[in-house]
């Protein structure tokens, strides 16, 4: 060890309470030498970082409509931030404390800010959103562009096709490429924020205060995704071109399927919050004096909760002893390795860790659960919009106010049960099994809470529905309707929807609403009585089921979240003590590679297979206009059910292995032998079999 490092260690050990001996010029009070202020700053930073990471999921359907993306492409976009994150997260163990951690966190936050700003660039470089796809002129002509006119009077269909040029396609690819680049940069910037922040707190907080500080940090940061959905709910109520509104306003409401909210504004707000949170990190020192006192109210709590417990508390006893952790694990010896040596050693340690059957099964169960969470977080808002005919803003509000808070409650309840009941490995496995099984049972009624797609003239016909155009055969033959136009109208008397007023044979526009945002069309030859018919899609006949549906989803999420802490404890107690740090890192890495990256793409591909009508843009398939709701519900919820079943199967195998190991231990205890005693002595300290029962 270099002399300066040895001297620093001696100074630390000689100081009372393990406190570093600072230089005289550092004795003056500074807020940047307070670990409590660092925790405050880091809580705000992680909150803002998770908000900007989760914001895209709240506006995924809006981005699809704005840029003509399929669900598979949007799922890939949502998962792309994991690519940059996963590629670099392994090296966090290598760098450890040899870098200036606060400053590196600040640089990462700046990258996250740049990524957020970069995500908004496609909005500013693209042309204003034209929701009629037929004309770029003012509102009065927009309303009449979709009317039924004789073929000789409709020259407006030509510009739609003539706008498809090589420049248009290049511009589209450029905007999509910018968003993918921004997502990659977002993942790279997120790499140092959480690991370095947690290690910095653990290094310089008092040993007894560190769990409390980390608990406060996690409690604050878990609100980030909920705030992302809340922000999405607010922003999507605003029109996308709020910064460049056309003269006379727009004739759309947020319920119109062509409505596109101000998705880009949330990225600017989140990026601004991250930029503000990054400023203090450039003033924190590389090392600060270790906190020398214990919080008194925390000491009393520890005295009450830990008095009867002496066994199995290996991690806290090691911290309270004031000694440095063992130096034989990869995470501990990493600072002494070169990058090449670290890369060579890592695969061997990875394979050694994966040989533990309990560890492997727990990680597989968490991969299944994370796949379910990733798919639901990305596409649940879109599912609610399509299935129950609600706005994107209301869907985000339901998720942010119901599902995420109950999931956080589930995580907290799981931690309390493990702590208060002092659950061992067997009982932790049982709790995981019961939580997963309960969540699975709550998801069964969801398959029956929905309704079929309403009748769409010329596209989708319900077998038991009233005949649509058959009532008026040839009613739209005199019309020359644009093939790529989308301006739906609904015949409320029959529940039949038409792609455009032209497809309904309408020849006149009537604005009867007081705010002039709701448009009606009259003289419709395909509608009984000639109308008038309102613009917009027909409402779902089961929209009243959205609240019961979300309550069941939220309760299932809460029960599944109860397994978070006990499954984490199974990992910590199932590997060697020196491999614990790396095992947790491997767990998170495998979750990213096997769950968070592929799951949104898998869910998006499954959703695309249920599409019954695709919009065309310059000869290519763009956004899906209509889905088969029954197929959409069965395939989306079926994927969720599949991943929950996989997690349940893993926990069942874990319980079987634990029961078998308990039987073997009981047999060995009843028949002691010298060979067994020698084996226990060779395996390590006497207390290790009690800690590593798994």
UniProtKB/TrEMBL annotation:
The keyword Membrane appears for this protein: yes
Keywords: Cell membrane, Disulfide bond, Ion transport, Membrane, Transmembrane, Transmembrane helix, Transport
Entries under Gene3D superfamilies matching the protein: MFS general substrate transporter like domains (1.20.1250.20)
Source domain of life: Eukaryota
Residue stretches of biased makeup (Basic and acidic residues): 684-694
Topology in the lipid bilayer: Multi-pass membrane protein
GO biological process: monoatomic ion transport; sodium-independent organic anion transport
Transmembrane segments: 37-56, 76-97, 104-125, 170-191, 212-240, 260-284, 358-380, 392-418, 430-449, 545-572, 636-658
Subcellular location: Cell membrane
Kazal-like domain segment(s): 469-528
Family membership noted in the UniProt record: Belongs to the organo anion transporter (TC 2.A.60) family.
Name the UniProt record assigns to this protein: Solute carrier organic anion transporter family member
């Amino acid at each position: 060890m270099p002399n300066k490092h040895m001297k620093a260690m001696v100074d630390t050990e000689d100081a009372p309470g393990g406190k570093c001996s600072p230089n005289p010029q550092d004795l003056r009070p500074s807020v940047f030498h307070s670990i409590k202020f660092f925790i405050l700053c880091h809580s705000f930073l992680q909150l803002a970082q998770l908000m900007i990471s989760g914001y895209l999921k709240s506006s995924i359907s809006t981005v699809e409509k704005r840029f003509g993306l399929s669900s598979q492409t949007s799922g890939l976009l949502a998962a792309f931030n994991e690519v940059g994150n996963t590629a670099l997260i392994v090296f966090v163990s290598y760098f450890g404390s040899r870098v200036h951690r606060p400053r590196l966190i600040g640089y990462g936050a700046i990258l996250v800010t740049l990524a957020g700003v970069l995500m908004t660039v496609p909005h500013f470089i693209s042309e204003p959103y034209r929701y009629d796809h037929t004309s770029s002129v003012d509102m009065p002509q927009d309303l009449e562009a979709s009317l039924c006119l004789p073929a000789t009077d409709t020259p407006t269909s030509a510009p739609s096709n003539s706008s498809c040029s090589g420049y248009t396609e290049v511009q589209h690819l450029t905007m999509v490429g910018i968003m993918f680049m921004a997502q990659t940069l977002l993942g790279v910037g997120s790499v140092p924020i959480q690991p370095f922040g947690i290690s910095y707190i653990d290094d310089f907080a008092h040993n007894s205060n560190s769990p409390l500080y980390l608990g406060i940090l996690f409690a604050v940061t878990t609100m980030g995704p909920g705030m992302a959905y809340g922000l999405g709910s607010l922003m999507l109520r605003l029109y996308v071109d709020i910064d460049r509104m056309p003269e006379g306003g727009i004739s759309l409401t947020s319920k119109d399927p062509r409505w596109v909210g101000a998705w880009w504004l949330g990225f600017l707000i989140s990026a601004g919050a991250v930029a503000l949170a990054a400023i203090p990190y450039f003033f924190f020192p590389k090392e600060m004096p270790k906190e020398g006192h214990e919080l008194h109210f925390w000491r009393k709590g520890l005295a009450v909760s830990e008095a009867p417990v002496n066994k199995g508390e290996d991690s806290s006893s090691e911290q309270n002893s004031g000694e440095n952790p063992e130096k034989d694990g990869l995470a501990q010896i990493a600072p002494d390795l070169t990058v090449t040596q670290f890369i060579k050693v890592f695969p061997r340690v990875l394979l050694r860790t994966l040989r533990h059957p309990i560890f492997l099964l727990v990680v597989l169960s968490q991969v299944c659960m994370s796949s379910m969470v990733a798919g639901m977080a990305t596409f649940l808002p879109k599912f609610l919009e399509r299935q129950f005919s609600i706005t994107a803003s209301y869907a985000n509000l339901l998720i942010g106010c119901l599902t995420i808070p109950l999931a956080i409650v589930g995580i907290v309840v799981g931690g309390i049960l493990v702590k208060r009941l002092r659950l061992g490995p067997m009982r932790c496995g049982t709790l995981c099994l019961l939580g997963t099984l309960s969540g699975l049972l709550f998801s069964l009624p969801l398959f029956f809470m929905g309704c079929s797609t309403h009748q769409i003239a010329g596209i989708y016909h319900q077998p038991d529905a009233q005949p649509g155009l058959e009532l008026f055969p040839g009613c739209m033959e005199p019309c020359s309707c644009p093939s790529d136009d989308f301006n739906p109208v609904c015949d409320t008397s029959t529940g039949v929807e038409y792609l455009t007023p032209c497809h309904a044979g309408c020849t006149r526009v009537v604005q009867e609403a007081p705010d002039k945002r709701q448009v009606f069309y009259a003289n419709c030859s395909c509608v009984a009585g000639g109308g008038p018919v309102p613009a917009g899609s027909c409402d779902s006949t089961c929209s009243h089921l959205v609240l019961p549906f979300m309550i069941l989803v939220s309760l299932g999420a809460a029960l599944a979240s109860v397994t978070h802490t006990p499954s984490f404890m199974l990992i910590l107690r199932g590997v060697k003590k020196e491999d614990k740090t790396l095992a947790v890192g491997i767990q998170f890495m495998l979750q990213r590679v096997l769950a968070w990256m592929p799951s949104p793409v898998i869910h998006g591909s499954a959703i695309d297979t249920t599409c019954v009508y695709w919009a065309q843009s310059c000869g290519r398939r763009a956004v899906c206009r209509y889905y088969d709701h029954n197929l959409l519900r069965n395939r989306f919820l079926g994927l969720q059910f599949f991943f929950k079943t996989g997690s349940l199967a893993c926990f069942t195998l874990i319980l079987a292995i634990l029961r078998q190991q308990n039987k073997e231990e009981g047999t060995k205890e009843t028949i002691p032998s010298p060979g067994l005693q020698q084996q226990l002595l060779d395996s390590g300290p006497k207390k290790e079999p009690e800690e590593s029962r798994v």
